[in-house]
Amino acid sequence: MFKIRFLLCTQSGPFPVIVYLSLLTLVAAGATMISCTGSKDLSRARAADLIQNSAEFKQISVVSFGTANKETICERQVDEGQYMNNFFKGNSLLRFLRSQGFIEFRYTSQKRVGWVSMLGTHYCWDHNVHLTLTEKGMSESRGWRQDGNTWYIPQANREFIEVTGITKPQGRPVAMGEMAEVEYTWKWVPTEFGEALQRSVPEYQIDSAKIHEGLARFQLYDDGWRLKSLSLNR
User: Fold this and answer.
1) Range of the domain at 194
2) Are 178 and 171 in contact (CB under 8 A)?
3) 157: buried, middle or exposed (CB in 10 Å: 19+, 13-18, 0-12)?
4) Residue 82, CA atoms < 13 Å, CB-side half-sphere
5) Are 79 and 53 part of one and the same domain?
6) What pLDDT score was predicted for residue 189?
7) Cβ neighbours of residue 233 closer than 8 Å, sequence gap 6 or more
8) Tell me, what's the pLDDT at 175?
């Protein structure tokens, strides 16, 4: 391979300095200058990158449970065993977490006067169940998020599949401010926790085989295409 050299004269003090530039150097510099100006071409690869890195697409599917639970029952006294049996029976997620050894509970109840009528004094019982993570649960919760008294557990993540089509003005150069629509597909991928949960609790099934079709809208700016809106299901 041969090189073509260009001589450029530049002034440095009282003496001129000759600089040799190869043709390859000039080509590389030109390519860099072109890429810096922003491309008017919205490729499938560029659209896919912008979609799957957007905040909307990165939102995950979660399940949640509260750590502080209170219920008031009036005119009927329920003992701890009966109450806790009904408490877990009515919440399949908590049953699963307990069966996995992730949570434990502390139960308290308090009797108080509810109201007084001509028939006498009516009593109510406040039942409180406070849930905490076990040591095993604390280890498992590294990927969970706590907000106040609520734990959020990742159940599934979105997986981008492909761009299936791009619609934009044809037959003329794309002008600044014009829009383009991109059709794409994605699917849910359960987390390790989500896989275990759906095996034990049918109501938390994630259909990972279902292909979802989405639509993204892009707008051309001076620095290239920007994602303006994202619809996850058309």
Assistant:
1) 38-60+157-231
2) no
3) middle
4) 6
5) no
6) 98
7) 212, 213, 214
8) 82
Pair 165, 181 in one domain: yes
Q: Reduced to 3 states, what is the DSSP secondary structure of residue 59?
A: coil
Distance (Å, whole) CA 219 – CA 177: 6
Could you list the beta-strand ranges (E) of 23-149: 61-66, 68-74, 103-117, 120-133, 145-147
Q: What is the three-state SS of 127-169?
A: EEEEEEECHHHHHHHHHCEEECCEEEEEEEEEEEEEEEEEECC
The tally of domains found in the chain comes to: 3
Residue 114 confidence (pLDDT) above 70: yes
Distance of CA 197 to the CA centre of its chain: 19
Q: Quote the tokens at residue 142.
A: 């590294």
Residue 116 token pair: 């007084």
* Digit-coded pLDDT (tens) for 19-59: 444 444 444 444 433 333 456 789 999 999 999 999 999 99
What does the longest C-alpha to C-alpha distance in the chain come to?
113
